[in-house]
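task queued by scheduler; priority normal; single chain, no ligands, no partner chains; default sampling; output format set to structure tokens
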Amino acid sequence: MDPTARRRRTVLIATIAGGLILLVLIGVGLYGLIRGPQTTEPAERTPTDGPTATSPALVPAEPEPVVALGGPEEFAAAVAEALFVWDTTSGYGPADYAQMLADVTTDTEADAAASDVRAYLPTPEAWAQLRTHQTRQWITIDTIEIPTAWEDAVAQAAPGQIPDGTVAYTITGTRHRTGYWGTDPVTATHQVAFTVFLTCTPEQTSAPPPADPATGTCLLLRLSQLDNPLR
């Protein structure tokens, strides 16, 4: 498919999906993208023998681009990583990490999705406070699955009402933080759950069988409120 035509199709899907997702899920009383309160406290004061050995490897030294190619589940996991993996000592700020997600968001949902993302990241003031504690954060994902509420919404929709490639994934996992309180290393963990709404456009290939499975380009639509996912 011509790249320009594929891009136009992606934008069209995003435009339709942005409105339909909202209408369908409001209809079943399940859609609530309410901006949640920001966490401003440093890592909990839980002394340990030292920072976990794996934490430096889990937290890159700078914001990393979100890979948009692949399957929808892989993209949802990449969005989760981009939301929760950051390092206040990197020299970058919340806006730099948010930009990684803005780069893979549909144009029609850009403003709304940006607001969703900001609700997951510390405010600049909180970031400055966390930086004094050398705070790092990452996530371990436990489950990624299409919620029953989404399946019900799709089942209730008229044929063709929700475009192909539009899907929701609810993710559960553990948010980890490490840092220092004075000279004492501290850690904190918190269970999290949220839903990622996205759309994927399959890539066309002319390769004959047995070619590799088709991949697609995925884009972020919206995020649920943190800890208020679709179930």
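post-processing summary
- Confidence is low (pLDDT under 50) at residues 9-18, 20-56, 210-214.
- The beta strands are 69-70, 86-87, 136-145, 166-181, 184-202, 216-223.
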